[in-house]
Structures
1.
Amino acid sequence: MADTTYMPKTYRKDGGDTHVIASGGVLDVESGGALKLAGVAITPTAAEINKSASIAATAYQTVLAEVLFTEAGVAGTYTGTIALPAGSRIIDVGVDGIAVWTAGTSAKLIVGDGDDDDGFFTETNLKATDLAAGEINNIEHPGGKAGAYIAMEARILYAAAARDVIGVVTTVGTTATAGRTRMYVCYATPTAGAATKA
């Protein structure tokens, strides 16, 4: 006689709309199978997912975001924006010279935000020695182009509100297509733990 008290640890309910993995049950995706969200396969290995268990709930992974400026052959303005969530703390911000720009008259870069358009880096000549190919200007080595946010002792690297880091390249005169400059921001958005009072 069948045991009518037995309940499997994995089962469907709600007319099959919900699949339940009860305590002690296991969902095992075998080799060749896939687990998807909105039709997109989740590809990290179990070891990679388990590694995130070592990250404290009050911590946050470091994010590195980049924007590439590419000389387009005509004079004009190029704008690159990196959006930072509220409560983000900038660890580093910088610009990489990949290839010198060849605008006939000038090619200049500034980096700032919505409050100060050159708060991170003041006017940087992309045609000459301000940022030659292979060079990097960043917080610790701004190449003499430090803006107000990183030039003073009280650096403005944290913002409680959402914030955009904005780079603007302006070219004047006949141009080619050689210039390449990368702007990057390395940041984290942690959840602060509470200090204790003895």
2.
Amino acid sequence: MKKILLLLVISISIFSAKAQSSKNKADNMQLKSSQLVAYSSSTDGIIDNVTVYPNPVVDELKISFKSSQRSSVIVSLFNNIGKPIFKQQSEVEPGNTIISIDIRSKSLEPGVYFVQLIAENQTITRKLIVR
């Protein structure tokens, strides 16, 4: 989630800097290259095409993603204030993977939660609603 917000802040900063002045082209170029580095680090990772469904969830949550290589993936579930609720580590092979989590067994209160996947230096977070 922090990476997504950081990307948004960087993108907004670049847009604002370009709109403010065209005199500082060197500064704009420097900001533009920072944006590209941040963008590529979040898209060229080991996992992509992450889908969390059904959303909202009642009974069983499925997390689907594509892995570009064999790796260890940590799946975590956090409540809306960031408290860890669940954590599972899985070894995944290249290709499509689906991980299922029985929400009923976790005794979760209805509300907003966050699903986080970590693979090496890549972190992906998705919002989840539990009913």
3.
Amino acid sequence: MNPEPRLVRCRWVIAIWAVCFVIAIIGSLAMGFLMESISGFWTTTVLSFIAYGGIAFGLYLACRAQGIKIPQLIGPVPPLSPLIKYAATAIPVFLSSLGGAWLISLFAPHFFDGLLSEVMRNRPVGVFQTLLTFVLFVVLAPVVEEFTFRALLFTRLSAKYSPAKAIVISSLMFGLLHFDFIGAFVFGLVAATLYAQSRSLLAPIALHSVNNLIAFTAFAADSDSDGPIPVWIGLPGLLIGLPFAHGFLPDGQGLG
């Protein structure tokens, strides 16, 4: 991918994320201390919206300061048929995420216990809370994260390294943001490759949104989702998802 003449430095992107999440954590602690009657759902959700909103605004200011035209980073709107194909890629990618989480739980059985208990304690109740959660995870998070890791970080890294190396490094950075590092890393490889090949940010956004929609639907439908991933789900995830994702491993060809 041809880099933009001016690009936001990686350190500034990381700093914006770090500052916004530190503010969100401090706000969460303050709200929990001052307003104990407020449920954990509202604390987590409101501060998540604030954090993602702050990140989006910070990235906008960083792009503006560098004279970067955001529409050029987003790229063209793909035709409907390829866009559906990009979105459908989320199915095997989601399977690989389940397989990766299952693999982690084999070596660290209690690795996800704290996260799962926190998620279950703050799960949405009622239509309005469910709608807010949907907007957060299926709309806002995919847009902000894809703009961060694909439009900004991958593009910046592509100006310094080969596209293949930029895909791997940006995917590692994306993986570090998530508890399920293996699944998130594989997801990052696929998302960055789609962005490089399609030259449109809407491709990984479609992938990300459908991936989160699958997780959101499974979570909303399963009242016992705090249990471990069973072998009959985790093993097929590895056997089906990872070989599929392997096809997206960068070989340095067709990505420039």
4.
Amino acid sequence: MSILTRYLLRRFLALAVFTGLASLLIFITVDLMENLDKFIDTQTPGPLIARYYLLYSPQILVQILPVIMLLTTVFTLGGLARRMEVTAMKAGGVSPGRLLRLLALWSTLAAGLSFLMSETLVRDTSKERMEIFRTNVRKKPATLSENSGRIYFQNDARSFLTLENYNLEQGWGRRAVFQRMERGRLAWRLDADTLRMTDRGWVLLKGEERRLRPTLSARLFAVRQLPELRLNPGDIETLQAAPEEMNLRELRDFIARQRQAGAFTRRWEVNAQGKAATPLANLVIALFGVPLALRRVRAGLMLGFGLSLLSAFGYYGLQVVCQNLGYKGLLTPLAAAWLPNAAFAAAALLLYWRTDR
């Protein structure tokens, strides 16, 4: 590693750490002010609040890492240009392309780190963090360790299951209703006190079977096998999980099973594409900051900082708009997730082309 590379790396990392810590502190402070009344009303202990935000920190860092990369790029390159170090590098035979390649390498490493954190650390910490909020702030049952809450499961194109709740530790659900449709009308229905997973599959206990087609009939049962049900016990927790509580593989597997059952999966597909597209934003936005920094050298630090924040808000705003258009079916999941990256990559190329070299 050359002296110049080490010098640039030290400056970039120092600014990245400072910007990251400052951004993390601002984010936590704003979120704490927003939820402070809830913590006070529920008398949540201070150590538990501290643990909540400690668990929240990895997800916050993944969310704000593109902003960190943009600000670090603008401040690093802007500082080099103001001190005429870029000119000195050119005079010494160092082309601007070398700076761009170094920045691209660091941004790619940041994108890889973001994806790795999202798939592992964020997934694990989000479960415990959201459980703390559910059980201590919203005062709901312990959804991840005891009860799942109400479950609605589309079994296939013509049948679905409803459960009042499901005990994840003991493997049984209460107040199960399994219904099957034929030609758009209810054909038969099973109501049971308990649904349990056994070695032979799902079993209904203490219930009633009612058939409406072709003739009306009803009978009570103590035990009834339910081989028609395609629900995996592990899916019950997934049905209640937010996207950040699953990694990309788990989310795609869940989508595939729901699609086979005939369920509506567009929202999940948009979220899955977003998980793949979001880490790449670190590279795209960092490269967007290169011409932004070099074109605003004479304008001063504050203008560069303001333009960086404006660009970051523009990216996140476009991301939210595209995501909602994807949810409504106005954009494909692929376009909804990747359009912000494509738009800012095109803008970066345009600005770079117009920048005086």
